Amino acid sequence: MHSGVIYTAGVVDESALHGLTRSSTEQIDGALDGLIAIVEAAGGTAATILRVEAYLASSEDLPAWASAFRARWPENPPARTTLITQLALPTLTVELQAIAAVSA
User: Fold this and answer.
1) How far apart are CA 13 and CA 7, in angstroms?
2) Residue 68 to residue 25: CA distance in whole angstroms
3) Which of 24, 45, 53, 83 has the most neighbouring CB atoms within 10 Å?
4) Which residues, including other chains, have CB under 8 Å from residue 21's CB and lie 6 or more apart?
C-alpha cells in the first residue's frame, strides 16, 4: 500500500499454483477470490478496486473470465485489461494484478 492505494500483482489460484488440476473457471474464481481477499486485508473492498489486469493462457477462457468478472462487479465495475499470454507455470490459466483504494 502507498498513500491509500493498494497494488497487487501475481495473484493466481493457489491450488493450481501448487500443481492441482483445476478447470479454467475454477482458477478464475479462485484468483478473483484471492484478489479480493488481498485487497480486503490491505483495507479496501471489492468496490474500491479501480483497475484489474488479467493474463489468460488461452483466448478460450475469455467467456469464463467475462462471466466471473461480471458476477463480482455487476454494477460500477473496475477498469480492466485482458491479455492472452504464456504464464510462468503450465498448470496456471490466469494471473491477475490490480490497483485499489483503501476504504474511507
Assistant:
1) 18
2) 8
3) 24
4) 91
Cα–Cα distance, 46 to 37 (Å, whole number): 9
| Average pLDDT for the chain | 94
Could you identify the residue written with the cell 473470465? Answer: 65
What's the CA gap between 58 and 47, in Å, rounded?
28
Question: Cβ distance 6 to 99 under 8 Å?
Answer: yes
Least confident of 10-24, 46-60, 70-84: 10-24
Most confident of 1-10, 21-30, 47-56: 47-56
In the 8-state DSSP scheme, what is residue 74?
A: S
Confidence of residue 20 (pLDDT cuts 50, 70, 90): confident
Separation of alpha carbons 63 and 75, rounded Å: 18
